[in-house]
Specification:
The chain is 47% helix and 12% strand. The protein has twelve helices and eleven strands.
């Protein structure tokens, strides 16, 4: 099962994860007996991306011979890249002896011996691919226009803030989180390093950003160890984030293609909306800390034999 952010915007109830699950379970019950049913789900992932956690887990089990049949609602739930989908259907799955069923496409690999030369199937795969790229392009264009207007369009609010319930494109201070942000800036102003601050927050059992989100029902995550911990890198990310002086910084990342990885864009290409929301930290304090951190960074670079200009580029 798969549902992308683009799919959610189309508001097709028939394509929701819940409806996909019902369709697939009913199909399995009607067509199979004495079977073990495994579910794999990617909620919020585009079909052009094969690095989805659900699909990776499924493919690993297929390689180990633990799965002999895969059922999907339609081809696009498995993949929207028609070339990669064709490789799996025509080469990889037949080689592994895997049966593949796409319910809405009336496709069952057991009925297509020797490959899938059927022009209808290949044409459908191409349409899914083109549809994904066209829809993604339209969504990105709409988001770009909203950003230009100064609207905050990210699905997640930065630590210390939450979405305004009356305007999802606006931010308001989350006081419980903001107190932690103020403490971090205050400790930095007193001369504490990011490592020292992280250690102090862990020792005093201050909740991490992810723990705040879990507590508020915004996400569900499990720590790799016993619990979540503050790190010096998290402290540094907070200290250099202009969002805390009321600025919204957008267009920091770009994708080379639909489903590709994010890349950081040069700072001169960032879109900054000044005075976008209520600040948590005074600009004077923020600027003072940035200058102190810059001098410290340059000093460390000199000790390592790195020119200050190169040090700025490496920050």
């Amino acid at each position: 099962m798969r549902l992308s952010k683009e799919d959610e915007r189309v508001k097709e109830e028939s394509g929701s994860i819940t409806m996909q699950r019902i369709l697939l379970k009913n199909y399995a019950a009607d067509h199979f007996t004495n079977y073990e049913l495994l579910e794999f789900c990617d909620d919020g992932y585009t079909g052009t991306n094969f690095e989805r956690p659900g699909i990776r887990k499924m493919l690993e089990k297929i390689k180990k011979g633990e799965i002999d049949c895969v059922i999907v609602k339609d081809f696009s739930r498995f993949a929207r890249d028609y070339i990669e989908l064709g490789s799996y259907l025509e080469q990889i799955f037949p080689f592994l002896g895997l049966r593949f069923i796409s319910i809405n496409d009336n496709y069952d690999s057991s009925n297509y011996q020797g490959g899938i030369a059927d022009i209808t199937i290949n044409f459908k795969n191409l349409l899914y691919d083109l549809y994904s790229k066209d829809l993604s392009g339209k969504v990105r264009s709409a988001l770009s226009i909203r950003k230009e207007k100064g609207q905050y369009v990210s699905a997640n609010s930065p630590f210390g803030y939450e979405k305004d319930p009356e305007d999802r494109h606006a931010l308001q201070i989350a006081e419980d989180e903001a107190e932690v942000v103020r403490r971090i800036f205050s400790l930095t102003a007193e001369g504490h390093t990011s490592s020292e601050i992280a250690k102090l927050l862990n020792e005093t059992e201050v909740k991490t950003p992810i723990e705040f989100k879990i507590e508020k029902g915004k996400t569900s995550r499990v720590p790799k160890g016993e619990k979540f911990f503050w790190s010096s890198s998290t402290i540094c990310q907070i200290l250099k984030n202009e969002v805390y002086i009321g600025n919204a910084v957008q267009k920091k990342y770009r994708k080379d293609f639909v489903g590709g990885r994010n890349h950081v864009t040069p700072p001169e290409n960032w879109l900054i909306t000044y005075g976008h929301h209520e600040p948590i930290i005074e600009k004077e304090l923020f600027d003072k800390i940035q200058e102190t951190r810059r001098k410290t960074r340059n000093l460390q670079c000199r000790h390592r034999g790195i020119h200050p200009k190169e040090c700025e580029e490496l920050k």
